[in-house]
Fold each of these.
Amino acid sequence: MRVAVTGAGGRLGRALVGALAEAPFTGLAGPIAWTRPDYDLDDVEAPSRLILRDRPEVVVHSAAWTDVDGATRDSALADRRNTAATRALAAACAGSGVDLIYVSTNEVFDGRRTDGRGYRPDDPTGPINAYGRSKLGGEAAARESFDRGKATTAIVRTAWLYGPPGDDFPTKIIAAALRARAAGEPLKVVGDEYGSPTSTADVAEAVTELIGSGAVGGTVHYVNLGAVSRADWAREVLRLAGVGVEIEEVPAATWARPSTPPRWGVLEASPLPSGEPMRPWTEALADYAPILRRAASATGVGTGTGGPV
Ligand SMILES: NC(=O)c1ccc[n+]([C@@H]2O[C@H](COP(=O)([O-])OP(=O)(O)OC[C@H]3O[C@@H](n4cnc5c(N)ncnc54)[C@H](OP(=O)(O)O)[C@@H]3O)[C@@H](O)[C@H]2O)c1
């Protein structure tokens, strides 16, 4: 099966390419990696051109303008890159009978939920920032095209992604913790924002299983199981990395930033096509521990297990 991945050089994109390369159904050639400059969100002609050139049967659309604060500063650009570019891709896919998997986000929900449950795929959406609105626009564009086409589309929402090559929340919090410890200060971490930390490798495996099942369709939430605050996520990261530092929980409002993330950004994890559940977030993060320990030692500030975490 010929499967193309947009944004193939991004954090999730490279995990998708890796998982699809291992899947027997992609054959010896493996997946088709669409990256810039060939695939550019600003070029509405690119999808038709690439579909004609590479003849995929499924496209996984992982590319997006993921700068959440940038999207608030320039919402028109966010709409062009996350909504209009998805519309162009979806139309080209639907017109050629190519299935589309659109990667979306927990930020399509308002985060005002207070019953402690994660958002389900059919819960009402209501983004509170420009990035979430632009991604929700992409969802609508994908569904609309396929209402009229001969292929299908699936929306895969995920959240709080981390994974190689790093430069993610876990590796940034390790660097911040080491700086705070060197300065003899507590590490300030937001305590009132909740989410579902999710391994890119696990999402990539889930998407690969979805494609292999031949049941592409509907809306699913591929996140690792569980809900946790940023501060508790940081505690677990630092424990696994062996970095001891005092954590001071602060409200999200402590840092003024252009965009507001959903306070309760937790998604209820959908089962995999096999019926198996996604793994708990703590289990998935434990697999990332070697990279976390490397991130802790790479800074040169030193690590240790002493002190409160
Ligand atoms: N990160 C999260 O926590 C999170 C949570 C929920 C959903 N998502 C969704 O997951 C998907 C992957 O995100 P990620 O975390 O892997 O982010 P990422 O590392 O920023 O990857 C985004 C990808 O999009 C590409 N891209 C950006 N602007 C582009 C443009 N103008 N033309 C073509 N390609 C462009 C990037 O290409 P370059 O490498 O060339 O820059 C990169 O490969 C996105 O759809 C995002 O909305 C992410």
Amino acid sequence: MASVAAILKDVRTCTLCAGHLPLGPRPVLQFHPAARILIAGQAPGRKVHASGVPFDDASGARLRDWLGLSQEVFYDLRRIAILPMGFCYPGTGRSGDLPPRPECAQTWRPILVPQLRQLRLTVAVGRYAMAHHLPEESGSIAEALLRWRDHGTDPRLMPLPHPSPRNNLWLARHPWFERELIPLLRQRVAEALSEGDQPSSN
Ligand code: SF4
């Protein structure tokens, strides 16, 4: 089996869907097998494509606030892994960024995610990550969140709406999300980072 370093080298030189990427391949991810929390995002936007730093934008600032994490902890790759569904900027359509390229998750997730042997919590950010990590959820993000809140579904996996400013209207229409679920999310995050080192089944 290839080492993590070799896998990451292959990811960083990947050109699999280069023909579909308007700015060319530039995978943006954060990964170390010791990470306790996986942030499953969507895909880099233009700003993140330029900086090469995941969630280095307004979405990231809100996400860190939701998670209750400082920049220092959020960017500690031994604690937090960040794997968007598409690692490269997919381009922009009429109503915002295009969906993450499907080849990316199909190719890289089955190789990378099993390397996270200390994984305690996966945070599925936005509908593309939710569709992948919670395939049984066919409804809206609000419905998935309410089910998660009301029925105590898998505590190791939490869906989130995308923290983009484009979702401000959604957040205004669903005030229970920040009032009720964010405290729970922060608690889960703190627990995941402080738990012992026993291997996880997730
Ligand atoms: S989006 Fe993913 S599959 Fe496509 S070139 Fe980038 S790393 Fe490769």
Amino acid sequence: MSGETILIVEDNQVLQDGIREILLGEGYHVLCASNGKEALKEMSTFNPDLILSDIAMPEMDGFEFLQAVRSRPEWVTIPFLILTARGEKDDVLAGKSLGAEDYLVKPLTRQELLTAVNARLSRAQEIRLAQLHKAYEDSLTALANAIDVRDPYTRGHVERVTAYAQIIAQQMGCRDGLLEQIRFGSILHDIGKIVIQDEVLLKSNPLSAQEWEKMRQHPITGAEMIKDISYLAAAAPIIRHHHERWDGSGYPDGLKGEEIPLGARIVAVADSFDAMSIDRPYRNGRALEEAYQEILKCSGTHFDPQVVKAFQRAWEQNKIQAIYASTKTKVPSFDST
Ligand SMILES: [Fe+2]
Ligand SMILES: [Fe+2]
């Protein structure tokens, strides 16, 4: 690994030069400072990928510097390695309690230095990727919740549909990439409703033909919205086809059987089940049981029989009921209104 920038904070010039040479030889960019104060000055214009810091230094010692680094949100995740002289156990303990990742005992060999630096940099890279991934998903959910928030009767819908669809997909043996695609598709399946006005979206009376036509556009609008976002594009077919039916009577394209992408067939079951289980004047096991029976009844007409079988297996293992129970409190009660 190379190309990353490492900040060395060390007042012993010989040691600083030695470390610098080794790291430069490995292709790292290197910044140097002789104490914490100088290091903070370097960091006012540049965030290093890793910090190697001595403890005992004039002006600002390593502990004070470490505290300053950890107090800034943008610096919290920078790996911080302490350079300590042999036998300074208290330094190591104090450093770790302040948030240092690791320590290196002076004098250090080239091998020790490179092993520690490489390991910490790869770990930091993994953490950054995981955080980025999580941030993607969180922003997706926030976007999807923009619809949930508008319609109190469907609150929690996205969360439940996503959880049901994941369980069904797992039962069907879907893995990794496909599972993720289905998760994104479930989170965003109704995102196209964002362009539908409140008067239509929240209308309690039956929709007019024209309004219904608008409503039926949401899978197309949703798929269009995300098709150019590279990490979401694979979910576009799920969004577009989540209202298709196995027998070809669905919309928007009237696809039939396996012409409908598997992810969309799975989301269709999860989506309908949730809509039916919350669209009841009572909120208890009965609503859930009735919705479940309805799904079984529509196997082979509305729904792919294989998907229904997977859903049935999950139901028999109580997994569907567990999801419903865990998010139920967020569903508004119809009895009291
Ligand atoms: Fe929908
Ligand atoms: Fe939906």
Amino acid sequence: MQLPESLQNAIEQECSAFSHEALRTASKQLTSLYQEKRASSVPFFQNAVARTAYLAVRMPATYAAIHRVLLECKRKMGVSPSSFLDLGAGPGTGSWAAAEVFPELDSLVLIEKSRPMAEIGQKFCREAETPFLQSATWLCQSLEDALPSSDLALLSYVIAELSPSQVESLMERLWEQASTIVILEPGTPEGYRRILKVRDWVLKRGGHLIAPCPHREACPMQAPDWCHFPARVERTRMHKFLKGATLGYEDEKFSYLAFGKDPIKTPLGRIVGPVKKGSGFVQFPLCTDGKLEKKSVSRKQETYRSARNSQWGDAWL
Ligand SMILES: C[S@@+](CC[C@H](N)C(=O)[O-])C[C@H]1O[C@@H](n2cnc3c(N)ncnc32)[C@H](O)[C@@H]1O
């Protein structure tokens, strides 16, 4: 997975205002900020080098995760969305991913509390090739203010920054305003727990789960395990330098939930861990009807080819 060229160029342009050393120090601070629980990015984003570090090291990873989740939703959703709402949009990461996955989208509203980050996002949108991004409406306001309605609403890496009561109030309002809602969080035990709380809320509200859960039963994952998935993003030379990394790619781990008001056809299961491809067999952990099982598919089975082409996070059949 690579970022769209115009987005990559826009990020590099922003980075050129700072030395690599300054960006590297800010990247390290950013990493520690996100390792703290419930860290708010709003004060951090007051600082120009910190904002730019976010663009360089976090935006590519969150883009890859959102892209993967939206693709999964696209496979399951019965209707094509035409309007998109990006809540706590940051520099607009989710909207760039949505533009790639749903080229049919034609109206976009982004809500972002940090004015300097919203200004960067607006600048990036002007560099985009699609009218969907170019004609976006940016609202520099809080998620507690009135929300516009949309076919598809996204909260990516945001609810960690809200209190439980803010999340609940936001869910109630979004439920009235959006047909499909997608939430991503870091793929940590804490991120997963926040997703589980939203899942409980959705089920009580009579909503339908689109992904990743193939069932409405209690989540069968038990500590020390938690439900999370990877998305791979290629690292540019600068990204490698800023992270002090040697690998040419990064696997961003995320937890997520997509849900809506209309029932959808659920798959038999979801692959919830690494897929082991041996000689003549494939094995993977599978979440099915409220249970976890270790699935093994041999060369003799009809589903062997599907199993060989599957990866962690995919729906199973
Ligand atoms: C970690 S960043 C994620 C940005 C973007 N969604 C992404 O995935 O790259 C969280 C963003 O949520 C914004 N935010 C946090 N609380 C907010 C609130 N109450 N209202 C609006 N924006 C908020 C922050 O300013 C920040 O830009």
